[in-house]
Design brief:
2 copies of one chain form a homodimer. Chain A is an alpha/beta fold. Chain A contains 12 helices and 16 strands. The first copy, chain A, starts with 7 loop residues before the first strand and ends in a 5-residue tail after the last strand.
């Protein structure tokens, strides 16, 4: 039973960095060698999308117009050559774009077969749309904490969806999490999730309190999604020998690091990027990792969906998301499946 | 034969950060438990002293007035309790201050016995005054390169005394060194030492040339003594998976690090501090390391002494040093031995 791909599709496009979003009628792309065509079912707006939309680039070069969206779910409806690509044909998958700027906010996406995770029976297609960016990152962070024998974790985006996952996984593995939020009203969000240690970085004694708490709990793994001055605040508070994972740039500013603080305390700052981390795993480790994430997708790693919107509302949804940001997950429902 | 310690000594003092230097008559300090009293023979001005004199602090807290000087040589003339302290009595040593602000630019210094390296027979007391900061750092950097399987090294202070040592050790171990200098006239200094790869960071195509050269030579260990914008330039040029050692702050500015560059290339930034590194060695490793350094002190690890001056000329010597900086090593000759 061959799927009949239409000639054109609806896709969101942005014509320049920080530019507005448009819904356009575009040709459906064709998969090349090792690639698949995914008919998208759902795709979220993530905090990391905001950086991409502002013009921050992972690959260092992108060609406008772009289609945004760093993850989603759907069904593989066509494949290019290659064993793994062929195997995925007809299967539901969670997926990410393998080319920057050819993202998931579209009815169809071509991506590398290696950027698709086949979904287990019974996994919810909406939750699966949010499998990659947050759940895999949360699991990876906990694995890094365990392997590095870190006794506790400091998390800078505690009120976010990712923050909730890290907190729940930490609770299950007896790894205390020190939760940093930016606004007073977010303290309650983290407390309602059962967060015991919550610090508001806007308060004047923030660094002193973080230092005291990190020393007491022996928190030596700092997850820095912010950059800018936050990095130096974390370094100031960090116990001797701590590791800071630099994994996003939500301040949109470069990290500031005092080399004296870094050298006296033997601090380590490691750039951390999920695709690079996944590449350090062999095939069997990757499959086990993906299964583990899917098993937890209805519980510890579930995302609370605040609103479902069509692609045609992309700009309006984004505007609202920027205001509410971490409190509400917005999901695009795409195509006939929506 | 008991050494008769005088009641007072001449010592250099600075009364506030960035303040002038004075030669003062002070009481000779007494060694406590595990400490020794060293009658100083010689002590250098190092680039790292400039940061200390400007007020940068390794320990984070210091009480003025301070006596500067991070290394030197002399004879242990009194000891407090403790086996190692007693064993050093009467011996010539290379030494560093164990308390920040109680330095080597004085006729006598009390320090921890653990901060003294007993000198082998025949080691020159002037070269020994410069054994710790540069030779041990150079040897450590080469060991880090070897153990980390880095194929080549990028060094940011190539025209310095340390730069020469790293270059010579690298040549002997077949580890190419990419030498970065800041001024056109320093290119010749490095070339005259046999440096093959020399880049001037003041030239407009510096980053592009460094990137090309680092890729070609597989240089994945970057020694950053500068901080500030240099750190980001190194990160921009660094191959995937590179390590940047942050070990000084000669720009007197915090390192700037773009987290996107760091995460996409899985870069690592490690604060590196010689005393911390030495503490990772056991006693036997430390002795072997110190012997190795002393054996090379007349050859690969020798420092060219530009001028010898008395402590009474400290301020004048410092003023001249700041102008010439890396081109000429200034040594204080101290006490009767001078």
């Amino acid at each position: 039973m061959k799927y009949r791909t239409p000639a054109t599709m609806q896709a969101v496009q942005q014509d320049e960095a920080a530019g507005r979003l448009f819904l356009r009628e575009l040709p459906v792309p064709q998969p090349g060698a090792g690639e698949v065509l995914v008919r998208m079912a759902a795709a979220p707006i993530n905090p990391s999308d905001l950086g991409s939309l502002a013009g921050l680039s992972y690959s260092g070069s992108r060609t406008y117009p772009i289609t945004p969206g760093n993850e989603g779910s759907g069904t593989v409806v066509a494949s290019g050559s290659g064993l793994f690509a062929k195997m995925l044909l007809g299967k539901p998958v969670a997926c990410s774009p393998s080319t920057e700027g050819k993202g998931t906010w579209a009815e169809y996406m071509v991506t590398s077969a290696q950027y698709c995770l086949p979904l287990r029976r019974g996994v919810d297609i909406e939750q699966a749309a949010m499998l990659v960016v947050n759940p895999l990152t949360a699991l990876a962070m906990i694995e890094i904490a365990r392997k590095g024998k870190h006794r506790a974790i400091v998390n800078t985006v505690a009120a976010s969806n990712l923050g909730g996952m890290i907190l729940r996984l930490g609770q299950r593995q007896n790894i205390p999490v020190i939760n940093i939020v930016r606004r007073a009203e977010q303290v309650g969000v983290v407390r309602s999730r059962g967060g015991e240690y919550v610090l508001n970085s806007s308060e004047p004694d923030f660094v002193a309190r973080l230092r005291e708490l990190a020393q007491r709990l022996k928190a030596t793994l700092f997850l820095d999604a912010i950059g800018g001055e936050m990095t130096q605040q974390l370094a100031d508070a960090a116990p001797f020998g701590s590791t800071l994972l630099l994994y996003s740039k939500m301040s949109q500013q470069n990290c500031s690091v005092d080399p004296f603080v870094a050298l006296v305390k033997s601090l380590r700052f490691h750039g951390w990027f999920l695709p690079n981390w996944l590449r350090t795993k062999n095939l069997f480790q990757s499959i086990a990792f993906s299964r583990h994430a899917q098993n937890l997708l209805a519980t510890d790693l579930s995302s609370h969906i605040g609103r479902r919107v069509p692609l045609s509302s992309a700009q309006a949804a984004l505007d609202r998301y920027v205001q509410g940001m971490t409190n509400e997950k917005v999901l695009f429902r795409i195509g006939a499946a929506g």
